């Protein structure tokens, strides 16, 4: 049974649960201590947002929410811990959707993303910025394409790794624009940024964040385009890749909260409502927007539909581009 069918069934179960006897409702009460598994290291933007969300949920529920970082394998280790946890509502996960929609197509998943994980709520999208370094005089996206066509293979584009979202953006752009750009994959973002500031390549794609924003402000990096549904408030003059005529490359990292499959529908609905309430609070929204991450929210079923669509889309992209895991 896919997510959409499973969540529809859960909705029916939720209706029946609401009509059940009081003792049955108490049996599915929110656990006093909730573990939020964050699939990334401490100190990063995603960790900071996850902890802020955990604080909000703890205050709203009156329960304890303990953050546990389980980083590695592009989020797969953390999500595997969620998939294998007891489905009693005591374990939730915070991650991008890539461990569910991209990694499985690269042979990186020890769990079945369509059977072992239940989407709870979308939290935010993190835009992908396309930036020029001091190694090139490129000032806008059209100039980048002209340069790439004039010098096939000479323009170097750095990403955080083979088969990363930035790599997917590059492959979509190479195909749509029919340009020859050299991919330079890194093992994560730290060394990629150091080399970008040293002018070791012409272009990089990277998720938005405070550190990136400071380098843009100093002029060390020049924004050419953004992968996002809309232009960023902090960069209103920078067009999206969709605006530039490349909707297939207009991708961003979507983050959300997940639970083990089989978690009671009444708890999924409760957590979804509380997460949406937290995202509507002015202080959490301001914190997200300050890091160029945009709050999303919405229902669990809509989130599941989005994930299923991305799963199918990435399968086609990986197959067509011949992308392999490193």
Q: What fraction strand?
A: 15-25%
Number of strands: 10
User: What is the mean pLDDT?
Assistant: 91
| Continuous helix count | 12
Q: Could you say which overall geometry the principal axes of the C-alpha atoms support?
A: globular
Order of helices and strands: HHEHEHEHEHEHEHEHEEHHEH
Structural class: alpha/beta
- Main sheet makeup: 10 strands, mixed
* Unreliable spans: 11-26
Percent of residues in helices: 40-55%
Write up what this structure looks like:
- With about 325 residues, this protein is an alpha/beta fold.
- The protein is built from 12 helices and 10 strands.
- The protein has helices spanning about 5-20, 20-25, 45-60, 75-85, 100, 140-150, 165-175, 190-195, 210-220, 265-280, 280-290, 300-320; strands spanning about 35-40, 65-70, 90-95, 115-130, 155-160, 180-185, 205, 220-225, 250-260, 295.
- Strands 1, 2, 3, 4, 5, 6, 7, 8, 9 and 10 form a 10-stranded mixed sheet that branches.
- Helix 1 (about 5-20) packs antiparallel against helix 12 and helix 3 (about 45-60) packs across helix 10 (about 265-280).
- The radius of gyration is 20 Å and the shape is globular.
């Amino acid at each position: 049974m896919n997510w959409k069918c499973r969540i529809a069934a859960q909705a029916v179960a939720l209706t029946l649960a609401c009509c059940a006897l009081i003792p049955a409702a108490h049996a599915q009460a929110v656990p006093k201590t909730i573990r939020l598994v964050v699939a990334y290291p401490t100190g990063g933007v995603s960790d900071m947002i996850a902890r802020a969300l955990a604080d909000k949920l703890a205050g709203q529920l009156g329960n304890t929410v303990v953050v546990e970082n389980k980083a590695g394998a592009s989020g797969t280790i953390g999500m595997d811990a969620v998939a294998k946890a007891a489905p009693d509502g005591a374990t939730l996960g915070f991650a991008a959707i890539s461990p569910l929609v991209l990694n499985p197509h690269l042979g990186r998943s020890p769990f079945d993303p369509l059977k072992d994980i239940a989407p709870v709520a979308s939290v935010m999208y993190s835009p992908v910025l396309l930036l020029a370094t001091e190694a090139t005089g490129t000032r806008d996206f059209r100039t980048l394409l002209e340069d790439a066509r004039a010098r096939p293979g000479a323009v170097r584009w750095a990403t955080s790794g083979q088969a990363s979202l930035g790599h997917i953006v590059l492959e979509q752009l190479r195909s749509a624009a029919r340009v020859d750009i050299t991919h330079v994959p890194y093992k994560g973002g730290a060394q990629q940024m150091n080399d970008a500031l040293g002018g070791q390549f012409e272009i990089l794609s990277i998720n938005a964040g405070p550190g990136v924003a400071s380098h843009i402000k100093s002029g060390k990096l020049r924004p050419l385009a953004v992968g996002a549904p809309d232009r960023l408030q902090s960069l209103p003059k920078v067009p999206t890749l969709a605006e530039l005529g490349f909707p297939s490359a207009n991708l961003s990292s979507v983050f959300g909260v997940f639970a083990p499959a089989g978690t009671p529908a009444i708890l999924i609905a409760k957590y979804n409502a509380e997460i949406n309430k937290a995202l509507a609070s002015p202080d959490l929204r301001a914190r997200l927007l300050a890091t160029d991450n945009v709050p999303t929210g919405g229902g669990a079923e809509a989130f599941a539909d989005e994930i299923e669509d991305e799963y199918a889309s990435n399968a086609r992209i990986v197959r067509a581009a011949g992308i392999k895991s490193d």
